[in-house]
Amino acid sequence: MTKVSQSAGNSNANSNDIYNIVLLVVDILLLIAKFWIAIFEAIVGLFRPAPLEEVGGKVVLITGTGHGMGKQMALQYAKLGATILCWDVNEQTNNQTVKEIKANGGKAFGYVCNVTKREELIELAQKVRKEHGFVHVVVNNAGIMPCHPLLEHTESEIRLMYDINVISHYWIIQSFLPDMIERNEGSIVALSSCAGLFGLINLVPYCGTKFAVRGYMSALAEELRQKNPNNNVKLTTIYPYMIDTGLCKNPRYRFPKLFKLISAEVAAGSIIEAQRQGLEEAAIPRHFVAVEKIGRLIPRKAMRLVNDFLDTGVDTDKH
Q: How far apart (Å, rounded) are the C-alpha atoms in residues 83 and 173?
């Protein structure tokens, strides 16, 4: 009986092993098929961009709307028929943005918000949800960019940079993401930077904040995807090059026609297009994301030779 039992046990074990091997082979074949389908879809997407999502009648919240890209995004979203919630720490310039939108027949509401104050931010988020309902698009745009060597940065300067450029994003996302998850719709846009793709001198802490934005958005996308395979909340990370907003005080480039300041108006249009297309990441200009990925395949010493030849960056704002 013992030998029979052992024989039966071995037979069952062998059957289970064979079954598991068959399942593994099937999984591998499915992976290969899905992998190449995804590659094909990506290639097709290069020539056939996704249709633009309609934003007319939707509520769009943007931080840092008092000037620069934030203001331009507010103006352009309003022209598309969206209701704009303008958040900025500067009441005067923010109200001016609201007035310009209304003067052009748009709909906008201004709110004074210091994004470094967590409790005030959360309270304001509750207020705008009660007043305007579901917020369809949230754009984390507010940011500061001191430009000088690391050893010349003060403690308060570095802490403030992280509070505005990164940490405030968490409080805003925690305030509006639950509603998006519940309805399984909505978009969150986060402004990183090409300084979140490449390390640059005179921008060490700033690069740190922008790499952080890139990292948390990537992780959040995975978290949402794994919690809900049918997730329809879209996350878009934006990597602008040097934009003519006043933040980039002393740009330096050897080839001005190749690397030139981009107007805030053009940058805002590109960001809105990326959000409406549902892109996960987009650079301004668009090809910079691909350049960064290719650059990582090249030995660092060789890539540094190219960087030195191009001689592009930001000079210190301290003299």
A: 19
**Separation of alpha carbons 225 and 220, rounded Å:** 8
Whole-prediction pTM: 0.87
Instruction: Render pLDDT for 199-239 as a digit per residue (tens, 0 to 9).
Output: 899 999 999 999 999 999 999 999 999 999 999 999 999 99
Q: What average pLDDT does the structure give for the chain?
A: 91
Residue 39: how many CA atoms within 13 Å on its side-chain side? 6
CA dihedral 85, 88, 90, 96 (to 10 degrees): -30
Do the Cβ atoms of 108 and 102 come closer than 8 Å?
yes
Could you tell me where the beta strands, DSSP code E, fall in 199-301?
A: 234-240, 243-244, 251-252, 262-263, 281-284
CA distance 72 to 97: 9
Model pLDDT, residue 253: 76
Strands 234-240 and 83-88, bridge-based pairing:
unpaired
Of 84, 77, 85, whose CA–CA distance to 53 is shortest?
77
Whether 77 is a known active-site residue: answer no
All residues at 6 or more sequence positions from 21 whose CB lies less than 8 Å from its CB, including other chains: none
Q: CB-side exposure of 81: number of CA atoms within 13 Å?
A: 6
Cα-based distances in Å from 110 to 62, 72, 100? 10, 15, 12
Active-site position among 206, 216, 239, 241? 206
Residue 141 has φ and ψ, to the nearest 5°, of -110, -30
Burial (Cβ within 10 Å: 0-12, 13-18, ≥19) of residue 118: middle
**Cα–Cα nearest to 166, from 199, 119, 207, 125:** 207
